[in-house]
Fold this protein.
Amino acid sequence: MAGTTGNYTLTYSESSKGFPSFYSYYPDMMIGMNNYLYSFKGGNLYRHNTNDNRNTYYGNFTASMMKSVFNDTPLENKLFKTINLESDTAWTGVFSSDQQTGGSIDASYFVQKEGDWFAFIRNTGTTPAGAAEYPLRSLNGISASASVNSAAPAAVEINFNVNTSIGSILSIGDTLYFISPAPAPPPAPPSPATPTLCGTVTAININLPAGVNQIVVDTSAGAIPPGQTDYFLFIKNQVAESHGILGHYCEFTLTNTDVTATELFAVKSEVMKSFP
């Protein structure tokens, strides 16, 4: 078959009475003989199921991939927090829903518990965060700054008044955003301001008796605040402290790059109802 993302071969199983698999190889012709499958490609003859390296056809390797969806109680908004694989090895996963994208987990993040491979779903989102993501992520306000020292772009110092509590939630590795003060309001109500990515928090210096209440930011991937009294917000490190994927369903794609035989029996997730 010729698909929108390339050519593939669709197989039919007599035992399951269905089409269970798509294969990455796309031969010119196929024939079965003496309990073997033979195919022709580019004028060459190939015998299948005799190569020690799985998923390698005509000298090209393609990773195993399966795609499915968790869709119980489709009318409820849910948090998909974990992924469990009943498998003899871990797989890499990518997750998305009707409300969030960017969820992922590397095979190295899995740990084996009671025979299953277990991991928390990380939702990395996008950087900078899109406008549709702000209500769905851990976006926390701090306050307007007292001054900004931008002498070194990789270590911009954001200073706050000593009576401003930066809070214990903020930590190194979080992403800082700012909103510049709005100009004088026009006759019509102004539209909501969009936060601008400042950078990654590299240090938090607090010594209130000495008048120090400061956040140090690496702005290499962001922007230096243009003013001295911008309002600052932050988002927690989504890989380290993700709450999973939020949505009515969770679509997932699992990928495995092993060249040896591996089995995947079932995929499970810990799901809880979301209460806004």
Observations:
- Residues 2-62 form one domain.
- The mean pLDDT is 85.
- The CA atoms of residues 82 and 120 lie 4 Å apart.
